[in-house]
Input
Amino acid sequence: MTALYRRVIHVVSVSGGKDSLATLLIALERCGHANVIAIFCDTGNEHDLTYAYLIYLEQALGITIVRLKADFREQLLAKRAFIAADVRTRREYDTRPVFEADGKTPVPKRDGRGNIVLNKKGKPVQKTVKVGGGRRVRWSNKAKRRALAVMHPTGNPFLDLCMWKGRFPSRTAQFCTEELKRNMAVGFQLELMEAGHRVISWQGVRRDESQNRADAKKWERVGHRLRIARPLVDATAAQVFALAQSRGVQPNPLYLQDMSRVGCMPCINCNKAELRAIAARFPEHPARISEWERIVGQCSKHGYSTFMADAHPAKDRRVVFADLNIWARVEWSKTSRGGRQRNLLDDVENDGLGCSSSYGLCEQSDALSAQDIAKALGARAASNFLSLEPA
Output
């Protein structure tokens, strides 16, 4: 019986950022161009410079980057059919916990036979009672008309995903990463394995990035035909940039324009300083998000949705949206700590909009110029690209 395995294929997920670039360079040097496939999962919420940078990488490294893009057409059509046919009569209620007369001792929940209900850990579940008149679960006729008028596939993965979900992702429900990146990459690798190949999935993960990645393994076996390699787990950001520079490969020019990350523009998790810089340098992106908020809000049963969701004490959706919409968050980003007083130095800091890097790259501006990237795009696109380069 002949062997089922054809060859080992090394798949590198490229985001346009520094870590995935360094990972790609290592994979190409160790495994050879013929054995490496670079993939880019397009979220639809990227900066034009990132798309241009991918073209530069292809020409600089002599590779082809496979573009993957999620398609939610079927999900949106199914959601439209569900909304149109929704006739549910059930109601949802707010609840409050029940305590004994002392106001401190929880009253345990009991089943129909009087037995105390236990949770998965074997502890008693506290009894709760309904509060208020509840809310209808079904879509109202007004909400149906509002949603069905705009819920059509656009071809933009991020927007279509949010219309399908009826909301934007958040820190506690970050489904954008799963649906737009992880699932696409895993699906691509599964197809290779089903074709008889073994796959090594290369990931640009560093332990010092966040607490969640502090225990990341350098090498991991996932299945019989799948391994994961993380060559940068012990590296620092400075070492990652130095590696690319030593190979003569320039980083994404967004790193010279106040961006500490380049995946998604903006990201739902971007910090205050980054959001402020995006609004100052690339105002078309908050404008696009504002339009997305309008569209996704129409697809929501509540009639509104904000890109950068956060806790809010008000129940009136109009008040919540007024405080948390993208333009309100941009104004918030211009304030000092606490969000109440405007940062008076902000206008001075952003006056020139010149080269600014949180990684200290501007001192290396000659080596990290965007000129070579513009040349890779050709004469027609070069003028538009260079207009965004730092002065």
